[in-house]
């Protein structure tokens, strides 16, 4: 398949053996559009029985109702719950929802993740969490069931709009700020090129043996995420570095759906924490300015201009957060207005 849109969902299992009778040995779901024919040809050539079911995998539809629709399709199709994995190909919502459905069907059916967005590539594809939104809260319902495998292919990013690349770069910047100064310097120095090249391999002056900036950034982002998640896979310890940028962002993101992408909401939250860290003397003015400049260079904050009531909402939530973290709550509004609008 040459390209794929965010939100694609696919499920499949083993090919039908030539000696077997007619039965369902594979299930494939997806919102493939013009690519559905290519996918169908691929499976037919390999004699894999399959089904394609379009699903609306957006944050607004990330619900138990969507999980139920998936489960009904799985049940009607028929699948061996131990030997035939469900394959989910798509963005983070897709991977989370299909993962939850797989964890529920007959108490656990194996599934495989194939992320097609940069955010899903460095975030949702790593770890064991699945989930859906509930009662107005982001990912309030879910499970901890790791996939049987995760397959990574950065060529999917070529089909994405630039804003989706920025959305993923926001998550990479989070890990850089928490875990890896080298990744921050890489994003700071090469951010524009990475953004416009859509995280595809870049030419290097050191020849083929030298890792290019895009490949290095993707690798480090995933490695740092794995380092942080692996010792605490089931989240027994809730003091987690990967939750940086998640103080106000979950509620903010849900309140203004579909205005803000996840990475944009996280970056707004991170910018607030950068300001708090500076006022508490934990960051110098130069460090603060470098971080904000990097965010703006990666266009991670572009979504802040898209909602007419956004300024009042972020100010209210920022005041609430800062009242717990800093004595200088009111001044954040002026700083945010100068730097984020």
From TrEMBL:
Keyword annotations from UniProtKB, A to Z: Lyase, Metal-binding, NAD, Nucleotide-binding
Protein name: Uncharacterized protein
GO biological process annotation, one example: antibiotic biosynthetic process
Species: Oryzias javanicus (Javanese ricefish)
Keyword Magnesium attributed: no
Residue span, 3-dehydroquinate synthase N-terminal domain: 55-166
Family annotation (InterPro entries): Dehydroquinate_synthase, DHQS/DOIS_N, DHQS_C, EEVS-like
GO molecular function list: 3-dehydroquinate synthase activity; metal ion binding; nucleotide binding
UniProt xrefs under Pfam families: DHQ_synthase (PF01761), DHQS_C (PF24621)
Signal peptide: none
Ranges where the 3-dehydroquinate synthase C-terminal domain occurs: 168-296
UniProt cofactor(s): NAD(+)
Domain of life where this protein originates: Eukaryota
């Amino acid at each position: 398949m040459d390209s794929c849109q965010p939100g694609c969902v696919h499920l499949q299992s083993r090919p039908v053996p030539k000696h077997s009778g007619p039965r369902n040995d594979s299930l494939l779901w997806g919102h493939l559009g013009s690519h559905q024919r290519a996918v169908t040809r691929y499976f037919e050539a390999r004699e894999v029985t399959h089904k394609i079911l379009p699903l609306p995998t957006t944050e607004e539809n990330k619900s138990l109702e969507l999980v139920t629709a998936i489960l009904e399709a799985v049940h009607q199709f028929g699948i061996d719950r131990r030997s035939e994995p469900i394959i989910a190909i798509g963005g983070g919502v897709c991977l989370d929802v299909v993962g939850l459905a797989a964890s529920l069907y007959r108490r656990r059916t194996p599934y495989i993740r194939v992320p097609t967005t940069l955010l899903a590539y460095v975030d949702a594809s790593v770890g064991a969490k699945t989930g859906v939104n509930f009662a107005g809260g982001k990912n309030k319902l879910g499970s901890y069931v790791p996939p049987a495998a995760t397959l990574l292919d950065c060529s999917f990013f070529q089909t994405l709009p630039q804003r989706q690349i920025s959305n993923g770069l926001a998550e990479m910047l989070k890990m850089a700020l928490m875990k890896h100064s080298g990744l921050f310097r890489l994003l700071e120095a090469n951010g524009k090129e990475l953004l416009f090249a859509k995280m595809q391999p870049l030419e290097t002056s050191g020849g083929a043996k030298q890792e290019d900036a895009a490949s290095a950034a993707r690798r480090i982002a995933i490695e740092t995420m794995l380092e942080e998640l692996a010792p605490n896979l089931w989240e027994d310890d809730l003091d987690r570095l990967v939750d940086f940028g998640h103080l106000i962002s979950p509620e903010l993101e849900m309140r203004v759906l579909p205005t803000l992408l996840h990475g944009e909401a996280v970056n707004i939250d991170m910018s607030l924490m950068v300001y708090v860290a500076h006022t508490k003397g934990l960051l110098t003015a130069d460090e603060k300015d470098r971080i904000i400049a990097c965010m703006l260079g990666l266009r991670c904050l572009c979504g802040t201009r898209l909602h007419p009531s956004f300024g009042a909402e972020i100010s209210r939530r920022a005041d609430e957060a800062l009242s717990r973290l800093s004595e200088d709550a009111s001044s954040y509004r002026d700083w945010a207005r100068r730097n984020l609008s």
